UniProtKB/TrEMBL annotation:
Pfam families: Peptidase_C13. The active site is at H162, C204 (nucleophile). GO terms for molecular function: GPI-anchor transamidase activity. It comes from the Eukaryota. Pathway: Glycolipid biosynthesis; glycosylphosphatidylinositol-anchor biosynthesis. The keyword Transmembrane helix applies. Keywords: GPI-anchor biosynthesis, Membrane, Signal, Transmembrane, Transmembrane helix. Belongs to the peptidase C13 family. The chain crosses the membrane at residues 374-394. This is GPI-anchor transamidase. GO terms for cellular component: GPI-anchor transamidase complex.
Amino acid sequence: MAAPMRRFLCSAAVVFMWFALPCFTLQQDQNVESFFKSGHTNNWAVLVCTSRFWFNYRHVANTLSIYRSVKRLGIPDSQIILMLADDMACNARNPRPATVFNNANQHINVYGDDVEVDYRGYEVTVENFIRVLTGRLPPGTPRSKRLMTDDRSNILVYMTGHGGDGFLKFQDAEEISNVELAHAFQQMWQKKRYHEVLYIIDTCQAVSMYQLFYSPNILAVGSSQVGEDSLSHHVDPAIGVYIIDRYTYYALEFLEKITPTSKKTMADFFQVCPQHVCRSTPGVRTDLFRRDVAKVPITDFFGSVRNVELSLTTVPLSNETESTEGGAQVQKQGEEEGRKEQPKRYGFVDQFPAMAETREKETSVSKVKFSSQFLVASSAFLALVAIIIFGRIAS
């Protein structure tokens, strides 16, 4: 009786493994697929202040406010293109040299101690801005002035200055139209220079600047409707000018409460400055964006949070990413006859900022999820074992 029983148990164990292993593999594949559901692998930001002169202090403060937020949430300076048409921190009229405040109480110095301006003064032109977006820069341009993005890059584009119906002025000398901007984004899409774009503009009649967009995966936000002015928030008596615009002021107030692990979404961000607060009517355009904004984490654009998961098993991933640089496709290796194909190596830069404070490690018990097929197979196996044991006892 013992030998047949052992043979039966061995057969049952083989059947159990036959059903259980595919269930583990299926669950693993589902985890991998959901792990990379955002679709992007890196974050970039292009922040542009188009105004000169001391009385436009607020536009510099606007741009530096967003700059401060994206750096704090993890986008390094190497992946931020900062364009400032004037240097308010070193202006002779500034009573507090080397500082730019966006609040009369001087709570936050948005200039900081480690600001890196990539384009300043007369370098901030329509031509340079378009060249940065499209990647059509002279060969000698340093990497710090290049937007080195690819088809897996999420890009935040923020612009502020003086504008009107269908245009934004650059330094009171030239202007960029909504047609030129729309075509620039289309070139970026055709050259696989972005995965998703969040376009924010804080200026008068801001909505008009994205009305002609026609490229996919663009989410656009404007501080005012056509025919409306985008108003300033308050004056600092010590400086003597308005120091920040209303929309960016409340956007910064919202972003200051965001952490890299925040669960806030883009839908929450769209509510930061309602009409009764902004005095203008902010606009949002989502028809070109493929995802539900209520499910898009705000850190998909304002942060650089990489998903990390430790696993003891090997997960095969197909390599479908084509390497690009400067918008031009790089020919795949192995095209030449007799040439041995070399494996591609990918590296990541260190994230900013480095956490100086040592946080307490949170111990958590990893939760294992079992599929329905695995549970059925396990139940059947246990039932068989129970029947055999009770039969043995009864006999």
